[in-house]
Every structure is written in structure tokens, then in C-alpha cells.
Amino acid sequence: MNKLEQVAHKLIGDYPFLRIPLVALYQRACSVLPSKNFEVVDLEFCRPGFFFGFHDKCPWSYDGSKLLAHRYDVNKSVNQVEDESIDVGYFENDEFKFIGSTNAWNWQQGSSIQWVGKANKIIYNNLEQNKPVAKIVDLDTDEKESLPCHVMAVSNNGRYAVSCSFARLGKSMSGYGYKDQLSTNENDLLPDNEGLTIIDLESKAEKQILFLKDVIDSYPDVAMDGAYHLFSHCLFSPDDSRIVFFHRYLRKNGSLETRMFSCDMDGKNIWHFAGGKFSHIAWYGNSTVLAYSKPAGHEIGFYFLEEDTGRITAIVNESLTSDGHPQISSDGENVLIDTYPNRSRIQRLMLYNIEGNRCEPLVKYKIPFRYRLERRCDFHPRWNRDNTKICFDSAHKNVRALCVMSKPEFTS
Predict the structure, then answer these.
(1) What is the pTM for the complete model shown?
(2) Distance CA 319, CA 359 (A)
(3) What is the pLDDT of residues 326-361, one digit of tens each?
(4) Based on the number of CB atoms within 10 Å of its own CB, is 17 exposed (0-12), middle (13-18) or buried (19 or more)?
(5) How many whole angstroms separate alpha carbon 342 and alpha carbon 51?
(6) Distance in angstroms (rounded) separating the CA atoms of residues 37 and 43
(7) Which of 308, 304, 163, 154 is nearest to 240 (CA)?
(8) Which InterPro entries match (predicted)?
(9) What's the pLDDT tens digit per position in 390-400?
(10) How far apart are CA 412 and CA 410, in angstroms?
């Protein structure tokens, strides 16, 4: 964002009824100006009609031979696609292998399809009789299991999953819920029984480890009076000892506020990351979270936030002045970060080297105007297991597609 845009964002960023139409008008006007796409390197793989979803998961199997994806019918209108199930499966040797279909999906996070640890198993969300389930499929034996809830994240060792309400997520954030899902407390501002649930994927035992009311009572704020509350964006730490999550509340004026917490696997030892405006996160080691946020006493931006010590380290780089979706390489050296479309509808993918504070451009594409709001196509970049390849979703060819590129040699 330029200086003028930063000022405008500060003024209207919390008021979606103003921000959304004004941004649309601004982009409409600016997008007619000529602009040039470029690629620093060629794409190895670009498949229209496929996408993965969010930036907080790795789509590659542990051995690197398979790449998870969702498939939709490119010959149908967006309205038709959104009213139907889509396919889930994986690419192996450039061939897509169908696993099943799901009607619990959205454009931003898909069906939360992900690998179950190092095993050749996948898990994805679905609806059965409009009730939430998570389907587990063993690709070696074709054995299938179901959990009576939706799953947001699976622990790195494949033993546990964490669940929260996708119905509440969809009600407060358009484009993140699932259509036709039944919920008994979706309209309640603060249900007594709503919170984070841990599922043991071996025994199938479920345990609710933390309630919304626990967090609100322990960390009160007068701004929350009369607000609609939910948990979201749950992530296991690399060693699976901690879970980071958002507490979000929708105020009467329509603004969505976000606080960030972490806790042990049993819901104990809660850490409150002071500040607000949290949007996108990634673990950096087992006690630090990279977040686009506004820590207490700081301007909004990307920060490394440490538990226990409360230490805050800002990323100060002129290429990283706006929100994006980070994923950190497994060796902890580099961060993939994308941007939202700018005034000319240009969307960027970048690689940031942490030690050198260096940001390298990878991809710059002009995204059609129709890909916006809940139908936008964020890149949501993801590393493969050995940090040699990058996967992202893109609509630069006028259709949503799954893309793969190699990590360029000019980066460290």
C-alpha cells in the first residue's frame, strides 16, 4: 500500500460497510490502466479447475509423491459450482486421483483437506444429513472412517485434531463457512458449550479443552459487550505441545475484532498475545508466532511474537507493508508471503529471507475483478516438505487454478 492507501485503511478498515464498496470503486477505476504481468521463473504446473485452499497446511504427502487438491467443474457458472459438491483427491505423476466428494467447502479453505501426519491418510470435512463430519481415508487400504465433527487442523504427528464451529465462522465471516450446515447454537451470541475440541484420531475420543466463556471471563474487554463470539484459525505448534487460535467477536457496528491466544493441549497455560488486528499467522519454532497484527504500542505489520517473554520483533522491509498469508519453511529460514490485489488488481507472491531481511519477488499477476470478496483467489502459498517447491492457487488465467513452481536458485 502507498501512504495514501495506508491512511485510508486506518480510517475505514474497521468498517466493512464503507471499506468494501470504496475499495471496489477504487480498483475498478485503477484496473483499467495498463499493467504488465511477470514471472521470475516458469511454473512447472498450472491446472485450471483445481485448487487447494488455505496457507496453513502442506498439500504434499510426507514422501513428496502426492499433492492434495480440490476439483470443480470449470464449465459451470460459479453459482452452479457453489450449490454442488466438489471432488477431493490428489495428483500423482501429473494424474489426478479421485478420493471422494464433499459439500462442506468454500473457496478460501476448501474442505480443510490435509494429511494425517506421516501416514498415507487424508482427512477432509463433509456434511452428512446436513450434520458435520470429517472423513478419514487410508490411501493404502481404502479404509474409510468418519468423525462426528469438522476438523480445522491435524497435529504434525497425526495423532490429534482440533475442531471448532465452522457454522459460527461462516456466520461471522462470509465465505468461510459451509452451506446447508445445521447448528443448534449458530445464532447465539455466546453459547455455554462452544469452544475448542481435541479429537484423538486413534481412539476417536473427544475432549472440549477450552470454552469461549473461559477466555472472555479471563480476558474481559468492554468492547465485547453484545458481540457475537467464535474461535478460529487453530494451529498446532511444530512439536504439537501448543495450539494457537483466534478469538474473534463481531461487534454491533459490524466490525470484526480479533485477539490471539495459545494454550497447551489440555487447554491450560493460556497465553494472551497483547494487541489486536490479528489476521494471518504461522508458527516460527515452538514458542513464537509470526503474525500480521497490531501489537500493543506498535503499528500494524508483520511481527514475530514470543510466548512467555512477550518479546515483539517487527519485520521492517519496504516490500512487506500490507497484509498477506505467510508460510515458513521447515528449516526456519524463509517465509512465503502473498499480497491482496492492489489498486490495479495486481497480486504478488514473495519470498522473505528472515536472517538477511531480504524479500525476493516470485510472481506478479493481474487477477480479474470478479475474483473478490468471498470468491477471491488468494495465492495462499505453501512449501513442500523439503522446501524446494511452492504451491499456490491463482486466477491469472481467468479461471481458478492450482499452480506449482520450484524455489528459485537466486534465493537462499
Answers:
(1) 0.91
(2) 7
(3) 999 999 999 999 999 998 999 999 999 999 999 999
(4) exposed
(5) 22
(6) 14
(7) 154
(8) WD40/YVTN_repeat-like_dom_sf
(9) 999 999 999 99
(10) 7
